[in-house]
Amino acid sequence: MAKCYGCGKISKGGMPTVKIEGEERPYCADCYWKVQKEYKGKKNCEDCSYFSAEKCKKRNKNLEPVTVGYLTYFVQAEDCGNYSTDKDVALAEVRKLEEAGQFGEAASGYDKLGMSEEAEAAREKIAQESVVNARSSVTNLAKKGKTLTYYCPHCGAPLKVGAKAEAKKKCPRCKGDLDVLNLAKLISQHQDE
Ligand SMILES: [Zn+2]
Ligand SMILES: [Zn+2]
């Protein structure tokens, strides 16, 4: 049994829901269609220069999305005095993110602005960061006297890294390249052991 939040119609079957303010509201097909249309027409924070990864940087807080089917809307923009679609403002905000070391968010910001080279450069920094992290993880393992076994992605040979073994650049069996990024992933999976 479901009761439409819009018109009060009762249905034995299920109804599509809209999530507003943490509440799942069922709607009959007609009302759901209206709600979909209504939200499509609203101002969306995602188009705003001060928005990044569900967060409004003017209000400095995470925004609660309204979920309609598969789509999410941040409609706080509707009554927000800071709403801006100025590209220069957006770019300045993205640069700030990058300076703060939030490369992932910066990269998607650049993507949104159609600046693919900058986006790639920011992503490159994420990769560099994980290489640095991987190296320091290996150092930490060694300090703790631990050794990890991992496997060559090419031939499956068991390889060791940590106290008794340095990270290798090539597999001793097949001479394949051992990606330091894979090593970083492996180590982070075993971090808690
Ligand atoms: Zn209805
Ligand atoms: Zn190998």
Q: How would you describe this protein?
A:
There is one protein chain. With 193 residues, this protein is of the alpha+beta class. It has a domain at 1-80. Helices cover 38% and strands 18% of the residues. The protein is built from five helices and eleven strands; from the N terminus they run E-E-E-E-H-E-E-E-E-E-H-H-H-E-E-H. A four-stranded antiparallel beta sheet has the order 4-3-8-9, with helices on one face. Strand 10 and strand 11 (158-162) form a beta hairpin. The protein is elongated. The protein starts with a strand and ends with a helix. 22% of the residues are buried. The mean pLDDT is 88. The structure holds zinc ion (2 copies). Residues 4, 6-7, 9, 27-28, 30-31 line the site of one zinc ion.
* DSSP summary, beta strand count: 11
By secondary-structure content and strand pairing, the structural class works out as alpha+beta
The molecules bound to the chains, other than polymers, are: zinc ion
Major sheet attributes: 4 strands, antiparallel
Helix content: 25-40%
Briefly say what this structure is.
The protein is an alpha+beta fold and about 190 residues long. Helices cover about 40% and strands about 20% of the residues. The mean pLDDT is about 90.
